[in-house]
Design goal:
single chain; alpha/beta; TIM Barrel; 8-stranded parallel barrel; 13 helices; globular; disordered N terminus
Length: 381
């Protein structure tokens, strides 16, 4: 991997910022330290986008400092998705992904890969939808998936220890597998199987994860049921899937809320779902945690308290499972949260979905995460 002078300067600035480590998040008191005391690991997303944008967190030394202090691993925000890696059918571009991987290795952070195949027609490069798979579309589609997964896994073999191999394959409304250009060519089940089997062949020691956003709201039964059917089918076919990744974008993102509150949640149904997943032998991960506060009151004190309480209730459920071994947040600071660009609040105020605010000060959500980690059971080997 070749690192440019500019990239080297950014990495150096991030390292220099480590001289200002506050006592609140050092060593055993860091979120990853609290997690490791229970045989968990804690990490965050980091973005290699343009400096000054929501996806450009790696260019900010304060964010780099925060991640290194609090986290044991990172996941690139967009840099390993097809849109970034495959600008054309015949070209790979690893420049941004390599930069993040190099930074993580320099700072002795583990790395997750997101995602080898986003099985959703809206989140693939535009060229995929119009691609001509020729006279034998199943063969051509299979070759393209194999090439992509194998190329990524070979490049980062021994470096990336966990992959979201397939992301969001289940339609949240109907519970059936989504249709994409690849599934039209060779069938959705075959697409998913091939992605996992190729990943296993090229990254035999990596954790292979199916990742999705089903959750605990009462209108989620079709989505949960569809994911269970998929996991059952994968298990029956012997597809090498190790774990379910639960995105955990909780709060009012897909929830209208009421009277300035979060909407209802069906905790018994959610526990039954998790029981069925773990009962099949799958491990669990929280892969993309944040709390959308779109419908909450404007006042920061009340809003932060509501977010923290809601998060604690959710995490107490999730972290109670022995098979839950990894927790990733989708942003450590509100300054770089993707939710700032998603469905604005009625009052147009910035959102506060992350454990640290835009000035990199810890919030009640950080305390809630820490307390949930402390209260979680010790994982047996």
């Amino acid at each position: 991997m070749k690192i440019t002078r500019r990239e080297s300067l950014v990495m150096g600035a991030c390292a220099a910022a480590l001289s200002t480590v506050p006592a609140i998040a050092a060593g055993r008191d860091s979120l990853d330290g609290l997690a490791r005391a229970k045989r968990l690991q804690f990490g965050s997303v980091i973005g290699g986008g343009r400096p000054g944008t929501l996806t450009g967190s790696m260019a900010d030394p304060r964010y780099c400092d925060l991640v290194v202090r609090e986290c044991g691993l990172i996941v690139p925000e967009n840099e390993l998705k097809w849109q970034a890696l495959r600008p054309t059918p015949d070209k790979f571009d690893f420049a941004r992904a390599d930069r993040i991987v190099a930074w993580a290795k320099t700072n002795r952070l583990g790395i997750r890969g997101h995602t080898l195949l986003w099985h959703h027609p809206d989140w693939m490069p535009r060229w995929v939808a119009g691609y001509d798979f020729g006279a034998n579309p199943a063969s051509k589609a299979a070759a393209m998936i194999q090439e992509h997964v194998a190329t990524v896994c070979k490049r980062y073999r021994g470096t990336i220890h966990s992959y979201d191999v397939v992301n969001e394959a289940v339609d949240n409304r109907s519970g059936v597998l989504r249709e994409t250009a690849f599934s039209k060519a060779m069938g959705a089940e075959n697409v998913i199987d091939l992605a996992f089997r190729t990943a296993k062949a090229e990254a035999p020691d990596a954790q292979l994860v199916y990742n999705d956003y089903m959750s605990w709201e009462p209108w989620n039964p079709a989505h949960r049921a569809g994911v269970l059917r998929l996991l059952e089918a994968l298990k029956k076919r012997g597809t090498p899937v190790d774990a379910l990744g639960v995105q955990a974008h909780i709060g009012s993102g897909n929830d209208p809320g009421s009277n300035g509150q979060f909407g209802p949640r069906d905790e018994p149904a959610w526990r039954r779902f998790l029981d069925e997943v773990t009962g099949m032998g799958y491990d669990l991960l929280i892969t993309e945690f944040d709390v959308h506060d779109k419908t909450l009151p404007a006042g920061i004190i009340a809003r932060d308290r509501a977010v923290a309480d809601y998060a604690r209730a959710y995490l107490d459920i999730m972290l109670s499972y022995q098979k839950m071994r990894t927790m990733m947040v989708w942003g450590m600071s509100d300054r770089y949260s993707w939710l700032q660009n998603r469905t604005p609040r009625a009052d147009q105020l910035p959102k506060r979905p992350c454990p640290y605010d835009s000035d990199f000060q810890p919030k009640p959500l950080r305390t809630a995460i820490a307390d949930a980690l402390r209260a979680s059971p010790f994982r047996e080997a």
